Batch of 4 targets.
Target 1
Amino acid sequence: MSVFLAISVLALLIVVHELGHFVAARAQGIYVTRFSIGFGPVLWKYQGPQTEYALRAFPLGGYVAFPDDELDEEIEPNDPNLLKNRPLLDRAIVISAGVIANLVFAYFLLMTQIAWVGIPELQPAPGVLIIQVAPETSSVAAQAGMKAGDVVLSIDGKSLDQPSSATQIFQDEIKAHPNRPLTFEIRRKEQLLTLSLTPKAGEDGVARIGVRLAPNGTESHRQAKSLGELLGSAAQRFEQIVVLTVQGFGQLLSNFKDAANQMSGPVAIVAIGADIARTDLSRLLQFAALISVNLAIINILPLPALDGGQLALLLAEAVRGKPLPTEVQNGFMQTGLFLLLGLGMFLIVRDTANLDWVQKLLSQ
C-alpha cells in the first residue's frame, strides 16, 4: 500500500506538470492533439472533440502533443491556433506553464500539510541531528557507520551543547579537518556511541562527510491562528525548499563528481516515499512538495528535451528574429532526449540494485 501511495504521488506530480501545459494552451485556443500520462502501452484512452486523453503503462513521465508537426487535412499550415504560429510570448507561457504548475502545487501541498498537522515548533536540545546520510560510495559518514536519526553530541571533545550554535560548530569542524580523523560522540536512541571518521576534501577543497543536518530538539505542532499565518508559514517552508533545491543543483554543477552520487531516480524516490508513507502519512505531503519543486527546477534548466531547452530555443529565435533551422532544433531536442533516457535508465538500474531486498537477494 505504501509503495502504491508513493507511485501515486509521483504520477500526480507528472499530471500536474502536464496539466499546466495543457491548460495554458487550451486557455489561449491553441490546438492540443494528445494528453498522455506515462509511457509505453496504452491502458486507457478517450478521444475528445479535439484531444486524445491516454493513460499508459509506465507512469514515470507524460507529454502534451501539439499537431504542429503532424498536420492533417483539417488544419491549415498557417492556422493561427497552431502553437508554432503563435507569438513568442504565447509559446513561452505554454512551455513554462508546467514548471509554474509544479511550484504552485508544491505550495498548496505545504499549506495543506500545515492546516492538517499544524505549524511546527522546535524545542531545542543539545547536539546536531543527522537527517540523511549519503550512500557509502560517496559518504565517509556511512562508511563509518553513521545513520539518519543519530544525534552528534560532540566532535573531538568539542561539545555541541548550545543549540543556537551547534550546527555551525559542526560544519566548521568538518571544514577545518580535511583528510584528518575526527572522533564523534553520538546518541542513537538510548545508546551512546563513539565513531571515528576522516572528512573527505572534494575537488573544490572543501571537506565533507556526506550528511544532511538539522537542529536537534523535540518538535511540537500548533494550529495556525489565522489564514494569514497559515499562508505565511507555508510560504516560509516553500522558500526553504526552493533555496535548498537550488543550492543542491549548484553543488551538482560545481562539484559534479561528489554530488552526482547523491542523485536519485524514480525507483529511489518511490522507495523513500514508501518509507515515509509507512511512518507518517502527513510527511508524504511535504515529500511530494519537495519532489514537485525538484521537477520544476529540473525542467527549467536550459537542457535539450526539457522545458528550459525549449525556452532556450525561443530565446535564440527572439535574438535572431526567426527560428533556428528545423534540423538544428530537432537535433538539439533528440540529443537531449537520448541523454535523459540514458541517465534515467542508469538511475533506475543503480537505485534498484541498492534496494534492501535486492541486496539481500544478491547476497544469498
Target 2
Amino acid sequence: MKAAVLHDFGKPLSIDHVADPTIGTGEVLVDVVATPVLSYTAEVLSGARQYLLPTPVVPGGGAVGQVLAVGPDATRLKRGDWVFCDPTVRSRDGGLTPDVALQAVSARGEGGQQLQQYFRDGTFAECVRVPTENAAPIGAIDPENAGHWCALATLLVAYGGLLAMDFRPGETLLVSGATGNFGSATVALALAMGARCVVAPGRNVGVLDDLRRRFGERLRPVQLSGEPAVDTLAMQAAATGPIDAVQDFLPPSVGAAIARTAIMTLRQGGRAVLMGGVGMLGGEDLALPYPWIMRNLITVRGQWMYDTLAIPRLIGLIRGGVLDLDQWTVTAFPLNQANNAVVHAAGNAGPFKLTVLKP
C-alpha cells in the first residue's frame, strides 16, 4: 500500500510503498477514506513537541473509512461497514488505570509507549490496523462526506469534557477558549445538547462575531479586556442567569490568570473541567482560592480525551440531526500531497476548519 512515512523528525514526509498491515485477534483492518490533519501536525513531525513517537512511522491519528477485514472475535463488524477509527488506544489489561496511546501521535508512560510500538502506524495511508473496539460504526455515509465526518476527532475531545461535568439541558456553560478549535466545537455541542445559553469569552472579535452569526441568541460573546475583575463581571452579565459550568480549552500560550478568571464566574455548586494546555510552557499556577472552592461547593476536575461511550452518543447526536457537520469547511488533499496538507493545516487552524487527507 501507499503511505506517507516520517523517517526522521524534522524531515518531510516520504510517500512510500510499504507492506500492508496484517491483523489478528482483537484487530480490524480499515480502508482509509479520509483522515484529519491536525493543526499542530507540523510541530509533531518537526520534533518541536518532543512526542515519544518511534520512527520510521506512518503518522496520522483518527480516520473515517470502511472495514476491510476483522479478527476472529469480531461478532458485529463486517467488511464494508463505515467506521470512525478512534486514535485513543487503551491497554486491555490496565483495569481502572489503563495505559493510553494516541495512535501514531503520542504516548504517555512506559505502558503507553509499548502500545505505540505495536500500533505505531497511523492513518496517513491507504489502510490502517486498529483494535476492534476502536473501529466505531457510524452507519452508511456518502463517500464524498467522509471528510466532514473527520470532525469527530475534534468533537469527541470536546464531548468528553461535557460528559465529565455531566452537562445537562437547560444549563448555562462558559467555554474558556471558545474561539479555538476545540472550544468552538464545545460551543456547537453544548447548544446541540440543549444549553440554555453558552458564554463565549475571547479576544478575537471576528471569531466571536462568527460564533454569534452561526448560533444566534443563545451564544453570548464577551470580548475580554485583560482586567480580571472587569472580565468576571462581563462574563456573568452576559449569561441569562447563574453560570453552571466552565469548560477550559485555553492553549499553552495563555497565562493561568485568564483560566482562573473564567472559573471564578461559577455559581455555588458549579463545575469546571480543565482540558487545555495552561501551564505546559511554565508560568504561574492556576491558584484557585481554597476558601472559595470549599464554601461554594465548587468541583474542579481534569479530563484528557474521552470515554469510549462518548463515541456512539456523539454519533447519535449527529444522526439525530441536532449537530450539523456541514458547519465545518473541509479542504482535502490526496495522499501524495501530504506535506502540503500539513502546511495547510498549520496555516488554517481555527473554528470549523478541517484539513483532511483522502488516501
Target 3
Amino acid sequence: MDDGKEQEKMIQENIRSWAEEYAVENDWVLNSDKTQLNAVIRGLARNKIRHGERYCPCRIRTGDPNIDREIICPCIYHKDEVKNDGNCHCYLFFNNGK
C-alpha cells in the first residue's frame, strides 16, 4: 500500500474512533448502514488530508476559514439536527431511539 493510502486509512481509523466516542458521550449511535458510515468517514478523512480539517463532506466549503469553521465535524448544526430529525445531515450521528 502506498504512503498516501496508508495515511488516509490511519486518519479514517482515527476519525471512526473519535466518532464512536463522541456518539457515546452524547447518547447517540453511529449510522448502522456501514456503506453510508464508511462513505462519510472517508469524506471526512479526505477533507482532513486536502484541507487540514474534518470538514463535513455533505456541506460546501466557502474557502473562508472563519465561515468554514462552522462545518468542521462536528458542525454547529449537528446537535439540533439529531434532536429534531433523528440524525445529522451527513447521516453520521443518530439518536439512539430512547
Target 4
Amino acid sequence: MPPKASPKPEWLRVKAPQRERVGSVKDILRDLHLNTVCEEASCPNIGECFQAGTATFLIMGPACTRACPYCDIDFDKTPRGLDPTEPDRLAEAVYRLNLTHVVITSVNRDDLEDGGASQFAKCLNALHHKMPQTTIEVLIPDFCGNIDALKTVIRARPQVLNHNIETVPRLYRSVRPQGNYQRSLNLLKLARELEPQIYTKSGLMAGLGETDGEVIEVMTDLRAINCDILTIGQYLQPSPKHLAVVEFIPPHQFDRWQQAGLEMGFLQVVASPLTRSSYHAAEVQKLMSTYPR
C-alpha cells in the first residue's frame, strides 16, 4: 500500500479567481450546453483559465467509458449518443469567447466504432468555418489503436495533436489499466508520420510513485518519436476514492525536468506543480512562429 502523502504544500495553493470573468465564461458554456474538462476533471487552474476567457472543451461527454482511478470524470459503460449539434455549439462558444487558440478533448468513447474520431473532425470543420484564424489543439484518446480513427482526426487539420502518456510504464496497470504505453507512443509516432507539419504533444503526471529515472526514460521515449511539446504536472487526488498522492514533488524538480527536456530537443516543456495538459496552451502560437512548418 502506498505511503500517505503529507498535507498539500504551499506551492499548490491557488488564488481565488475574480467571480465576474469566471461567471461570464460559465454563462456561455451553460447557454450552449457545453462541457469543459476544466470542470469535469476538477482542474486546479479553472479560475485562472476562466478568468482569462479560455477553456478546454470536452466533447462527447460528460461520461467516459473508462474508469481510470486517477480521473474525476464520471464513468458510464453506456454513455449517451452523439449530439449532431455539438460541433456548431462549440464553434459558437469559441466565437463568443473570441478565442485565438482552442483546445478540444473528449472522454473515451470505446463504445463507438471510431472512438469518436468523426465527432472530433466535425468539431474541427465547424471551427475552421466559423473561426478560420483560430489555431486548434486536439487532446485525443488512444482510439484503442484504430489507425483509421487517427487519420480521420488528422485530415481535419488540427495544428497540435496531443495525447497524454500520463505515467511511466511500470505504473500503467494501477494508474491507466485500460491504456497501453506502447500503443500511446505509436499513436504519437504515427501522427507525425502521417502529417509532418503537425506539432505533437504529450503530458505526464508526477507524484504517483514514479522515480526521476523513469520520468527521464519516458521523456527519452517521447523524443525518440519526435514529440515536440511536453507538459509535466503534479497529480492531485480528486476524492478519497481515487488514487492517493504518493509524493508532492517540489518545484525545483519540475525545473530540472524542464531543463532536461529542452536539452533533449523538445521545442517546449511546461513543467510545474500546477501544470496541466492544456495549461497556457495558447503559448504554442509563439512556438509555431519560432519553429514554423
